[in-house]
Amino acid sequence: MKIVRFLTIANTPMYGVWEGEEGVRVIAGDPFGIWAVSDTRLRLEQVTRVLSPVEPPTIFAIGLNYRSHAEEAKGEVPEQPLIFIKAASSITSPDRPIILPKAAPEKVDYEGELALVIGKTAFEVSEEDALDYVLGYTAANDVSSRDCQFGDQQWARGKSFDSFCPAGPFIQTEKDPDHVRVTTRLNEETMQDSNTEDMVFSCRQLVSYLSHQFTLYPKTLILTGTPEGVGFARDPSVYLKDGDRLEVEVEGVGVLSNNVFAADG
Helix, strand or coil for residue 62? Predict the structure, then answer.
């Protein structure tokens, strides 16, 4: 099942089940509480915009969680998850612009990722039960200002500019997130192409580990790491520029697309 958050022609945000060309079946209730799929179906022309799957209270992200990416970044494979936090204000929707910030426009990079959407409050859950607390998974782009990230010697600013966390377009509730393909394309050229099987820590491990450090509230977003192929590690390096188009495709979810704009563009 693909759950979508969207705006109607009345400018009302709603959740529904995406049924492709047949439209959207409206969800009655709250997907993060009590809910059911209703008999009401909206035509695609009644959906004015697909929104980010959630407005998260917190965005957790995991660094160096693909063996191949740890190697290209010349880092050691972590012995435990390397956690950082992106500001909740960095969230943005499919087809909305990624803005190159005025403060650091020169070395902005892409990181296509699978992201988990927490469905109910999780605290100190076991690995065995961890995915019971996940509503589903989606695509995300951990956009990163490398000069800030590396120059500040910590990652908060470089990872958290407005628009630096595109997510969507759907929440996939049925597939196994530890065996899905993740692909990133820049201007139709494939830059990243891997599988979550290369992750150091599985989705179950990440949810369990995080829940032993923090309470994970519903709508929390967990970015599970990026595979090899990021821009800064290439020779020569590839950074985003005004007019670029990024696509992150996660198997079972679909394609998350965003254009890149300069802040004064």
Answer: strand
